[in-house]
Amino acid sequence: MKKKLLVFFAFGFFALFSVYKPVLADYSQAYxxxxxxxxxYRQDYENFTIAKATYLTYQTLTTQNDLLEKMxxxxxxxxxxxxxxxxxxxxxxxxxxxxxxxxLATTQRIIGEETTFLSSLQNQISAAATISDxxxxxxxxxxxxxxxxxxxxxxxxxxxxxKTDYEDSKFADLTARSKLxxxxxxxxxxxxxxxxxxxxxxxxxxxxxxxKRSAAVEVLYPKNNxxxxxxxxxxxxxxxxxxxxYLHEAGSFLLEILKQITNG
Length: 264
Known about the structure:
mainly alpha
């Protein structure tokens, strides 16, 4: 049993949900269930470590049987928390702004495949008769873990990118509105050089988002990642949020220009 499982759930999950608050009922229910299952897992893991230490100290049939059941319980608990985690990602993807239909379909397919894998392990864990059997099942999980970890983090990244891309499209609409108003004033014979420079400055600021986005994609979706190498979700998230800040600043520039035109 590896403690990095705890790190995965706390990091991978809350990197997303510290940014965007729960919204719809199905998502909130899934999120609450994840938290509940996660807390159960932590307690079951602690019980397992105690049983393991007791068995290594006394090595009796009683302590061995207790270890077998505590290990079975924690493996089942780990699977349940991971399935609930995937279910929450699924709900979040379905309500996320800006996620393209093909990306949503891919996300749901991956989540479905991983849930099927974990459900299969559930059956094997329940049927295991010995500690050796459980160790074999745990090895199967460990060998698959990096793929699951990478896929889950990439789904989080896709949701974050979709949200910010949606905001980028709104900025494009705002830019078009601003240019239309400036052109209208120009047609009336008014001096619009200052306003045009403001729009150009806003567009230059927004272009920095594209740079940050490209860098985030390289972090989250490395080329030729056939072995599902570990990715740095936190670094990718920071790049996306930095780019989002540029969009917000650029949008503020344009809103100020429209306000100036309206009050002019």
